[in-house]
Model the fold of this input.
Amino acid sequence: MTARLLIYLLLVVGLTGAPALGADDFGLAVVLLGTGTPNATPDRQGPAVAIIGGGKAYIIDAGTGIVRQAEAARRRHGLEALAPGNLDTAFLTHLHSDHTLGLADLALTPWVLEREKPLSLFGPPGTKKLGDHLIKAYEDDIRIRIDGSQPQNSTGWQIDGREISPGLIFQDDRVSVKAVRACHGEITDSYAFIFRTAARRIVISGDTTYCSAVVEAAKGADILVHELYSDAGFEALSGRWAAYHKSHHTSATDLARLVNQARPGYLVLYHQLSWGGVPEERSLEEITAQTDIPVFYGRDLDLYSAGQLPAGNE
Ligand SMILES: [Zn+2]
Ligand SMILES: [Zn+2]
Done:
């Protein structure tokens, strides 16, 4: 490091209390764009996260509100990678609608805001059909914008859907992405993703019940971002809903077991389910009482950097 750069970094850290979040400062980080579920929670948008690797954003899932959430995170954290025009690469864990309702937003809003590249969309079988049909549904709008008086490029509206199977699904000069089959009930094409740089690794569970493949994926990870439901909340359920959630999602107790086996650097909770008015703190305590791995109760727009333990909320 040059003396000049060192002085610059010292100045920035001194002025803001935290390092500037430029491209080179990140090995790998995750921003929670939406931590919600199908439930219409006003303070939690639909499930979506952004991995920031080498200054570029890679989007995972496209819940409701995704582009506005990305813009909110850009402003909060100073991450230009999350500007609408830079959102051009996305991955779907599975095709449940809570994870895809924002896909038209992700494809078309950045285009209207002058993104020229098509949206590259990696996801399970059915992804290409979903993208093609969405574009079909919006074809009148797309044509009017291109052919009308609005200054509008004729390329950025496209969705380039590519269907994945377990294994390495993406690689560029910043990150590699591996898909691991998760355990989401009858939905056999549901994936967890491993994002890796030379030195760092972040694992996103997607929707899954306790899953040995996710345990293996999370071994040695700097951060595991994992869904869960509250043990106490589950007591409020009965019948088919109880059976459904048990076979599709992960209880707090099972998640504690999972992190005790995998021992990631730390755990970030997202896609939190609870029922019966059980408070957030209770879900967090259900895990922290059963593990010594640091646990953070994720909220929309949170930023977590691999290799750095965040302050608070544990
Ligand atoms: Zn979901
Ligand atoms: Zn799901």
